[in-house]
Write a structure and sequence with these properties.
Helix 2 runs antiparallel to helix 3, helix 2 packs antiparallel against helix 5 and helix 3 runs antiparallel to helix 4. This protein starts with a helix and ends with a helix. The protein has a single domain, classed as nmb1532 protein domain like (Four Helix Bundle (Hemerythrin (Met), subunit A), Up-down Bundle). The longest helix has 40 residues. 23% of the residues are buried. By secondary structure, the protein is mainly alpha-helical. It is built from 6 helices and no strands.
């Protein structure tokens, strides 16, 4: 790829809100992978006793989760305040895919908040037997990561495809500008 074509593709990304949001989805998926790897490591450790490697991994899990929450809060804001209002002019909002996605945002925010609290409890736990706490964390974490993966898939394959088909180049440019200011 030449410098000129690289700049052109970078410019296209910056002026296309769908591509920007899909790129953020890819970052979110990488964070989900890191969370799931941490969970798998923690599940592989002995259930009793506090080991340095479990403490480090629990802290890493918490940090990954906090990072994901911050990323998603801004991402959801970009969708809800920049993309969806323009898209709703074409497909409506009430009872349609936009409302369904916004409802999922609410459920994901709640699930991530609950998971963050459980992970914090795990990090602060000083007792010997951590099986129950870890089971609570892993159960909710896998449910939450699954919900988020499915959500991303639906947005990428349904809602964003609708946006690609319906939004004009000028509408995409204006949405991208709004996204960049958030």
């Amino acid at each position: 790829m030449t410098r000129r074509s690289y700049r052109g593709s970078l410019s296209a990304l910056q002026n296309d809100p769908i591509r920007i949001l899909k790129a953020e989805h890819n970052i979110s998926l990488l964070r989900l992978d890191a969370i799931e790897r941490s969970l798998q490591f923690l599940e592989s450790l002995p259930r009793s006793g506090v080991r340095e490697d479990s403490t480090d991994e629990q802290t890493h899990l918490r940090d990954c989760l906090i990072s994901l929450q911050h990323l998603l809060e801004l991402h959801f804001l970009k969708e809800e305040e920049a993309l969806f209002p323009v898209l709703a002019e074409y497909i409506g909002r009430a009872g349609g895919p936009i409302d369904a996605v916004v409802d999922e945002h609410t459920r994901i925010r709640s699930a991530l908040g609950d998971l963050r609290q459980k992970v914090t409890d795990l990090c602060e736990y000083q007792g010997g037997e951590r099986t129950a706490i870890l089971s609570g964390v892993t159960g909710l974490a896998y449910k939450t990561t699954g919900l988020l993966r499915l959500h991303i898939c639906k947005e990428n394959q349904i809602l964003f495809e609708i946006g690609e088909d319906l939004l004009s180049t000028e509408e995409k440019r204006k949405i991208a500008i709004k996204i960049k200011t958030m």
